[in-house]
Automatic annotation (TrEMBL):
Protein name, per record: Methyltransferase domain-containing protein
UniProt organism field: Mycobacterium kubicae
Lineage top rank: taxon: Bacteria
TM helices/strands, residue ranges: none
InterPro entries tied to this protein: Methyltransf_11, SAM-dependent_MTases_sf
Residue stretches making up the Methyltransferase type domain: 91-187
Entries under Gene3D superfamilies matching the protein: Vaccinia Virus protein VP39
GO molecular function: S-adenosylmethionine-dependent methyltransferase activity
Length: 247
C-alpha cells in the first residue's frame, strides 16, 4: 500500500530557508525576530489565552459584528474566490490557529497541500492541536519576507490580519511574489468607507489599539498596479473582501 506524502516534508521542500520542527510546525525564525515593538493588538495575537479562545469565540463573534458574515459563509466565499478545486498548493498567511487553513485544504485537489503561515508561536501550537490534517502544514515566519521561492503557490490568502501588520502593503507584495501566474489571491481586511461620524469613530478606536483602517482603494489600486486582473471587492460594514488573479 502506498503511503501518504508527509505534508511537513513536502512543505520543507518548498522553503528557501532552513527550518526546525517545533511543536509540530516548521520554524524558520528561531528565538528572535526583527519585528518592530508590537502594538496592543499584536501582543494579543501572541497571547496563549487569545490563541485558545480565538477560533471558537473571539473571531466568530468579532467578525460577525464587523461584517454580518458567519465564519462558514466566509470559508465558502474564500474557497469559491480562490477556485481551490483546481489548485494544488495554498498559502494561508497569518493563519492564526488554522481555522481557515484546514477547511480550505479540504477543497484542494487530491494531492493538494495547504500551508498555514504565522509569526505567533501560541497560534501555531493551537493550529497543530486543533486543525491538523493530512494535507496541512504550519510554518512560523515573518510575512514581510516569505520563505518561499517565486511562483510557488496556486492560491494565496490572508484573512483578518493585514490591518495588524506593520508593513501590510509589503506583505501583500510578498504574497503576490509567491503566487504563480494563473493563481488567485484573496484578502479580508478592514474597511473605512462608512459615513464620516462612523468612520471617524472607527479610525480613532483602531488607532488606539494599533489597527490600520484601509479605504476602498488601498488594495484594489495595489493589485491593479501589480498587473492583476479580475479584481473584485465586496464591502460589509467594517470589512472588505478583495480578490484578484495573476495573469
Amino acid at each position: 500500500m502506498a503511503t501518504e506524502p508527509d505534508p511537513i516534508e513536502l512543505t520543507r521542500a518548498l522553503l528557501n530557508q532552513p527550518a526546525v520542527l517545533r511543536h509540530g510546525f516548521l520554524d524558520v525564525l528561531g528565538e528572535s525576530t526583527s519585528a518592530p515593538v508590537p502594538t496592543f493588538a499584536q501582543r494579543a495575537m501572541n497571547s496563549p489565552f487569545v490563541a485558545t479562545v480565538y477560533e471558537r469565540l473571539w473571531r466568530p463573534t468579532s467578525f460577525y459584528v464587523a461584517s454580518g458574515v458567519t465564519t462558514g459563509a466566509e470559508q465558502r466565499r474564500a474557497a469559491a474566490a480562490l477556485r481551490l478545486d483546481g489548485a494544488h498548493r495554498l498559502l494561508d498567511v497569518a493563519c492564526g490557529p488554522g481555522n481557515f487553513t484546514k477547511p480550505l485544504a479540504a477543497q484542494l485537489s487530491a494531492d493538494g497541500l495547504a500551508v498555514g503561515f504565522d509569526i505567533s508561536e501560541p497560534m501555531l501550537v493551537r493550529a497543530v492541536a486543533d486543525n491538523s490534517a493530512p494535507r496541512t502544514c504550519y510554518v512560523r515566519g515573518d510575512a514581510r519576507a516569505l520563505p518561499f521561492g517565486d511562483q510557488t503557490f496556486d492560491a494565496v490568502c490572508c484573512f483578518g490580519a493585514l490591518y495588524l501588520m506593520p508593513e501590510p502593503f509589503g506583505v501583500a507584495r510578498e504574497m503576490l511574489r509567491v503566487l504563480r501566474p494563473g493563481g488567485r489571491i484573496a484578502i479580508l481586511t478592514s474597511y473605512s468607507g462608512q459615513t464620516p461620524p462612523v468612520r471617524t469613530a472607527l479610525n480613532l478606536t483602531a488607532r488606539a489599539i494599533g489597527l490600520t483602517m484601509f479605504d476602498r482603494h488601498a488594495f484594489v489600486d495595489l493589485f491593479a498596479a501589480q498587473g492583476l486582473v479580475e479584481i473584485d471587492q465586496q464591502t460589509q460594514r467594517a470589512l472588505q473582501f478583495v480578490t484578484a488573479a495573476k495573469p
